[in-house]
Design a protein that fits this description.
alpha/beta; TIM Barrel; 8-stranded parallel beta sheet; 8 strands; globular; binds zinc ion
């Protein structure tokens, strides 16, 4: 079995945004006319059904704001044992969203997420989403989310772009946290440091078309980040959770291990970090 440890399939608006930025290429559609390409094709239940058909038995829907986390929670509630969710406020939202334990506790007392994320720091110039915020606001939000994770004994899903020095400095004050550095795309030195902190590393379609250092398999989590970062050979289409199968195949080839072994090890890693239960039969 396979697990997509990071996707945004619970929110049709995210797919609308992805389609508006990059519609499915006509060239691809000519050869594959039945391929998902219209907004209606990306209904969360349809995406989930296609994922399951492709051997993806569990997915984690990752929250990027308070409201978005509520949507992830509601989608997970519809598919117990198959869809899990995380609560997070993305650094891009640092100036527009509020993080407070009171808010968290009032909404989520009885429905615990499997992680706090995606949270972290994004210092990229010209990030694609609006509202790229001042560093101070990002740091304040990140620290609040770290406190939340510790208080509720949850692992974290980190989003870190061009900000690893501050990331590691802040973590010096939060020694015992566990988590995954999602969509890692930085230097081998920062990969080594992340591993040194005991973190898992999230690998997605980026690795199929960009030169990215890979972690050892026993610390690797497979993710799609759907609808973004479509892997080869599906570039020019909208990414979805079913593509975990293709990412697994690609990484297995690079690592020289069987797809079965890659699937098994990364699934065990995900279950261990997020304490996922087996699907309820
Ligand atoms: Zn994401």
């Amino acid at each position: 079995m396979l697990i997509d440890t990071h996707c945004h399939i619970h929110d049709l608006d995210t797919f609308k945004f992805a389609l508006s930025r990059q519609p499915v290429s006509q060239k691809f559609l000519k050869k594959n006319p039945d391929f998902p390409h219209e907004l209606a094709d990306f209904d969360p239940d349809k995406i989930l059904a296609r994922a399951v058909k492709n051997g993806v038995e569990q997915v984690i829907c990752v929250g990027t704001s308070h409201q978005d986390s509520l949507r992830a929670r509601d989608f997970a509630a519809k598919h117990p044992g198959t869809v899990f969710w995380s609560y997070g406020i993305h650094p891009d939202e640092a100036e527009s969203d509020e993080a407070s334990d009171a808010l968290f506790s009032s909404e989520f007392a009885n429905e615990t997420p499997v992680a706090i994320g995606e949270v972290g720091l994004d210092y990229r110039a010209g990030a694609p989403r609006p509202g790229v915020t001042a560093r101070a606001a990002q740091i304040k939000l990140f620290e609040a989310m770290l406190d939340l994770a510790i208080k509720h004994d949850l692992p974290l899903i980190f989003h870190v772009r061009d900000a690893f020095d501050d990331f590691f400095a802040i973590l010096n004050n939060f020694k015992d946290v566990t988590g995954v550095v999602h969509s890692f795309s930085d230097t081998p030195a920062n990969l080594k440091k992340s591993l040194g902190r005991g973190f898992y590393i999230g690998v997605n379609g980026l690795a199929t078309f960009a030169d990215i250092p890979l972690p050892p398999t026993d610390r690797l989590l497979l993710e799609t980040d759907a609808p973004f970062l479509t892997p080869k050979p599906f570039r020019g289409t909208i990414n979805e959770a079913a593509r975990i199968k293709d990412i697994c195949a690609y990484i297995s080839r690079v690592k020289g291990v069987s797809e079965q072994e890659m699937a098994q090890t990364t699934t065990e890693n995900a279950k261990k970090l997020f304490r996922l239960q087996h699907p309820i039969v």
